[in-house]
Design goal:
This protein is of the alpha+beta class and 252 residues long. 42% of the residues lie in helices and 23% in strands. Helix 2 runs parallel beside helix 4. The termini are far apart. Keywords: DNA damage, DNA recombination, DNA repair. InterPro entries: ARFGAP/RecO, DNA_rep/recomb_RecO_N, NA-bd_OB-fold, RecO, RecO_C.
């Protein structure tokens, strides 16, 4: 039985039998993997704390015939604050869920791993959780090959002169009024200012982005556009997003 080492973040877990769990990790060099963690639900298990949601750990894993088996683990960052604060936990769970649903197993993407870690750190350290989440959404979608077209009409290729623009979630970008009228599927009104913010999300560094104070209209537009954009490509709703919305309502 062969062994391999990696490092990863716990995306998901569910119980197996009386004492085991199946853990989904997103790893730096192997992408998304699933492993069996034997006995971690027992009170005295040394691996229990390192298999909690959000935990970032070094992993030693046995290669199995069907599912691999977790042999040893050492915590690098627990991200415990995300489990202790309901609102931060809700945002964090949505981020984990998005990575789990966007990616496939054994498909390495180190840039996605780095983005995930950076986002979890920001969710612990800063208070503008909406800003952090919108940046993550657009960058994660871009890493998966769905970079939105924001500089021209994606149908005719022409520049768009209107101040009020339209975003087509199914096609993944802006459309002019003429093309939008001919296309099937929903389009979303979006202001030019919000489009410029989306462009900054893609090209600016985090030091610059964390200084942004988004106006309320831009927050509303970004939330709607990104929700529909993500939902179209996943082809289903995320329960974690519904949970996040309910927690945000309670927090008002």
């Amino acid at each position: 039985m062969s062994l391999y080492k990696t490092e990863g973040v716990v995306l998901h877990q569910f119980e197996l039998g009386e004492a085991d769990k199946i853990i989904t990790y997103y790893t730096r060099d192997r992408g998304k993997i699933r492993v069996v963690a034997k006995g971690v639900r027992r009170t005295l298990s040394s691996k229990a704390s390192s298999t909690q949601l959000f935990t970032y750990a070094d992993l030693l894993i046995y290669r199995g015939k069907s599912l691999d088996k977790l042999s040893q683990t050492s915590i690098k960052e627990s991200f415990s604050k995300l489990r202790e604060d309901l609102l931060r936990m809700a945002y964090g769970t949505y981020i984990l869920d998005l990575v789990k649903e966007l990616t496939v197993e054994e498909d390495p993407n180190e840039a996605m791993f780095v983005l995930l870690l950076k986002t979890l750190h920001l969710l612990m350290e800063t208070d503008d959780l909406e800003l952090i989440t919108r940046i993550f959404e657009i960058r994660a979608m871009t890493l998966m090959g769905f970079r939105p077209v924001l500089d021209r009409c994606l149908e005719c290729g022409g520049l768009i002169s209107e101040d009020r623009l339209k975003f087509h979630p199914g096609s993944g970008g802006l459309v002019c009024s003429e093309c939008g009228a001919k296309m099937s599927g929903r389009t979303v009104n979006i202001s030019r200012g919000t489009v410029e913010i989306m462009k900054r999300f893609l090209i600016s560094n985090y030091t610059q982005l964390m200084k942004l104070k988004l106006p309320e209209y831009a927050q509303r537009e970004l939330e709607m556009v990104m929700e529909l954009f993500v939902q179209y490509h996943l082809d289903h709703n995320l329960k974690s997003l519904d949970f996040l919305k309910s927690v945000k309502e309670m927090d008002k």
